[in-house]
Amino acid sequence: MYRPPSLNTLRALEAAARHRSFTRAAEELGVTHGAISHRVREVEQRLGAAMFERRGNLMEPTQAARQILPTVRQSLELIASVFPAPPQGERQVLKIAVLPSFAAQWLVARLADFHDAHPGISIALDARIDVSRIGADGLDAGIRYGGGNWPGLASERLMTDMLFPACSPEYRARMEIAGLEDFARCRFLRNSWQTWTPWFQRAGISLPEPADSLPYDDAALMLEATIAGHGIALVRRVIAQDALQAGRLVRLSDVEIPFEGAYHFVWDANTPKPRLDAIAAFGAWLAARLRAEFS
Question: How far is CA 70 from CA 106, 125, 220, 242, in A?
């Protein structure tokens, strides 16, 4: 009978990807470096694909690993919310609605910091495009992008995201991109919610709106296509940051434009205490973490 990978195997894979180090993953989980390697090899044998590649002193997740990590992390968070560790006091589980791209590319990798700071609160993520039903469907709060002032919800503005062009190092080398004058011979990836024209105008480039490729409806999917070397994309600063720092993406210009609207943390203002206090704690941590990374 088929058996899925054990919880320890999934925890080892997630920790190794988050730290980009087998050694640090082993220290976190209280096991040996060899144990982490063994667990990772198990996943690789099951999927028939490498999970990591060495880049300098780091073990970078491969594209195959990045495809499964969001699901692995959400599964671990869900299990943690169902079977929380024995607390010293009453433990609360908050269900947070969040845009899938924001969750997969930024938030999930940082949730351990919140749990370390607030051991009495567990966060269960509900990744969805429509995050309008806060206070319903068991949702305590949400992270939305837009203009704010949603009826029936309290909100705190977090930040405006910025857009700039990026591509994979391999694509830049293949197309010999040295400056903006080289953009004309490149392929542009498009997103259905954002055209290239405003950026072209800000950068002073006379190019028509790209129409030779299918648009992407999801920012995370377009980011993965960009990392895979399919072309140049206008990427969002928040969700592209980790890929840029890891060298999977390279920024091609300092010129950037704001993405219309802003990230907001939203919740039902009628939520009773002490649940409202837990929601406020998560909102404060979220705002502080974004300010620390992007201010």
Answer: 10, 11, 11, 14
Q: Count the helices and strands in the chain (H runs, E runs).
A: 11, 13
Domain that holds residue 213: 162-258
CA 95 to the chain's CA centroid: 17
State how far the Cα of 206 lies from the Cα of 200, in Å rounded to an integer: 7
Per-10-residue mean pLDDT of the chain, 295 residues long, equals 77 88 80 84 91 88 91 82 56 86 89 88 81 74 86 89 96 96 94 90 93 81 93 94 94 95 89 87 94 88
79 in a domain, yes or no?
A: no
The answer to whether residue 269 is domain-embedded is yes
Under 8 Å between Cβ of 183 and 199: no
The answer to whether residues 100 and 217 touch, using CB atoms and an 8 Å cutoff, is no
The CATH number of residue 245's host domain is 3.40.190.10
Of the chain, the end-to-end C-alpha distance in Å amounts to 52
In degrees and rounded to multiples of 5, residue 165 shows phi and psi of -80, 140
Residues 252 and 196 sit within 8 Å (Cβ to Cβ): no
124 and 267 in a single domain? The answer is yes
Count of the separate structural domains present in the chain: 3
